From TrEMBL:
The keyword Transferase applies. This is Acetyltransferase. Signal peptide: none annotated. One of its GO terms (molecular function) is acyltransferase activity, transferring groups other than amino-acyl groups. It comes from Streptomyces gancidicus BKS 13-15. Residues 30-190 form the N-acetyltransferase domain. It comes from the Bacteria.
Length: 190
């Protein structure tokens, strides 16, 4: 099996004032919280957004594993809709002691390059900072963090930096070079 050298960057914000919001895109773009835990919908978002950039770690999750994850206090999915169609999402997870991780963030391929990503990220980060307001018992957010890697979109790291995230760690590791699964086989072959 061939391997791929992958650089992973870990980034953080330590105050709500660190966020530098992107401009709101033109048109009917709305952000909606997916409040009903739905393994089917979450798996659709995961596979559709990450299918062309090798998101594979959750593809083997069972329905029960998805449900267990989504029902945890402090886990939220915020979905960007472009004229009613899901365009992308951001998934947040409260991790204790006031730390919130942005577990996943991205757009479906057809919606990339339309200035939706910066707005979705800005909105998601703002929701990370006020997450405790929606979850009794969750400590107020003191830190928001995430990681991105060289397999993600070419503008991912720059988008995070423009939104006010600061780099705190970089690693390079070899990983198996797996085929991009797409939401279904062949979905991204042009």
């Amino acid at each position: 099996m061939t391997t791929l050298s992958v650089t992973t960057w870990s980034l953080e914000q330590t105050a709500p004032t660190d966020l530098r919001p992107a401009a709101v895109p033109e048109g009917d773009v709305r952000m909606v919280r997916s409040e009903v835990p739905s393994p089917e919908f979450s798996r659709f978002l995961y596979a559709s957004v990450g299918g062309d950039i090798r998101w594979t770690d959750r593809l083997g999750w069972s329905y029960a594993r998805w449900r267990e994850h989504l029902e945890r206090p402090g886990v939220e999915t915020w979905v960007a809709h472009d004229r009613g169609t899901p365009a992308g999402y951001v998934e947040l997870e409260a991790q204790g002691e006031g730390v919130v991780e942005i577990l996943y963030f991205g757009l479906l391929p057809a919606f990339r390059g339309r200035r939706i990503g910066g707005h979705l990220l800005s909105y998601g980060v703002a929701r990370a900072w006020d997450l405790a307001d929606r979850w009794p018992g969750v400590k107020p957010t003191a830190r928001v963090w995430l990681h991105t890697c060289s397999k993600d979109g070419e503008h991912a790291l720059d988008n995070y930096l423009r939104r006010g995230f600061r780099l705190f760690d970089t690693t390079v590791e070899d990983e198996p070079d797996v085929a991009t699964p797409g939401p279904w086989p062949g979905a991204y072959s042009a």
